[in-house]
Amino acid sequence: MFRLVKEPEDPSFPADLEKLGYIVNDDDQIRQIIDPERTFQYYMNKNERILKKRQAAIKVIIYEHIAKRGLIRQNLPLDPTDDGRHVPILISADLHSYDRVIVVINDRYQDLGVWAWRRIGGKGAGSGIKHGTIISMLDHFEAEAEKHKSDPEYKRPGFLIANPGELFWWRGGQKAITRRNWETIPRVSAFHPSLRLDPVKNVVPGHEDAYAHAQYIFNTALPALVKPEAQLQIVSLSDSTVSVIDSLNKHWPSISNRLTGVVWIAPGHTASDFGENSELRHYLKLNSRAYVCSTSVEYGEEVKPEDIYDTLLGCDVFSADEEIDECVMPRVMTLVADYLEDLHLKKAKYADADV
């Protein structure tokens, strides 16, 4: 007969990349100290929970890099709750001074500011902290602003990065985390089960799910944080597209004259989600486009809806030449940014889709 003398301790890892044996090279790529040619070894254990706990060290580096680009954290709701529950978003410092704001709404699985973890720790061109996060977009638009600094018509964009993934309030840590990261919360021992998710205590009021979070962004955050006459451009990823369309429908009278472009990334909607709003349909036909997974059509080329979807998306659709949804944005970020710049400068005329 066997008896467990002592339960194994819950594994923990320092939030320090070097202590884990890694460095960030000059290309913003994570490499092993003992062999700078080797990438971040995500699958060093068969336990997914342990793998996620190690990612915490990389998140520290990511947010340090983001802060250097001038973005700050803004807690929502704007009116603090009595018990301190909040969801962080990222905004440009002094966002209210910008005449043009790009709103990015990711899917409900990713950490704040992250496009794809597999790109952050990957190898080859297009990998690294920069390419796998919002940093790639921030750097791109910073270079664009420098290029257009003598153009009086050009408006340097500010950013509002929504956070539909980190909506689960961890009371012990006093922060919101993703559903995946809920499993990384410290336990009494390695054998103990994860904490139960309470549908009341472990949510943030007004941000109970990704849909409610998107509604709060449009209903409250944008009016409070962005000047009323500022131009708006939206980048919506994956399952957030349905809630963005619903918000556009609700706020169309007040937002239509400010909106200067929308990009859908691996979208989860169809044209039927536009409802009966013919003005919105017409606007998105002229001023939006979608990028989707497709390996049968070359990168950046137009994809006919019948090749991938049963119904139209209400705009032109282009190939990312990718197989995985979360890798679409890192792959097409430059195309997305250039398209938004064209719309901002009123150079683009894309109106071929049937709605």
Describe this structure in words.
It is a single chain. The protein is 28% helix and 16% strand. It has 8 helices and 12 strands. Helix 3 packs parallel to helix 8 and helix 5 packs parallel to helix 6. The chain is globular. The termini are far apart.
How are the secondary structure elements laid out?
Layout: E1 22-24, E2 30-32, H1 48-68, E3 71-76, E4 87-92, E5 100-105, H2 117-120, H3 135-147, E6 158-161, E7 168-170, E8 175-177, H4 179-182, H5 210-225, E9 231-237, H6 240-255, E10 259-265, H7 278-287, E11 288-292, E12 316-319, H8 328-344
Parallel strand pairs: 5-6, 5-9, 9-10, 10-11, 11-12
Antiparallel strand pairs: 1-2, 3-4, 4-6, 7-8
Sum up the structure in keywords:
355 residues; alpha/beta; two-stranded antiparallel sheet; globular
Identify the quaternary structure here.
Answer: single chain
**Silhouette:** globular
* Sequence of strands across the biggest β-sheet: 3-4-6-5-9-10-11-12
Biggest β-sheet description: 8 strands, mixed
Number of strands: 12
Structural class from helices and strands? alpha/beta
Q: Strand-residue fraction? A: 15-25%
Tell me, rounded to a whole number, the average pLDDT: 88
Percentage of residues assigned to helices:
25-40%
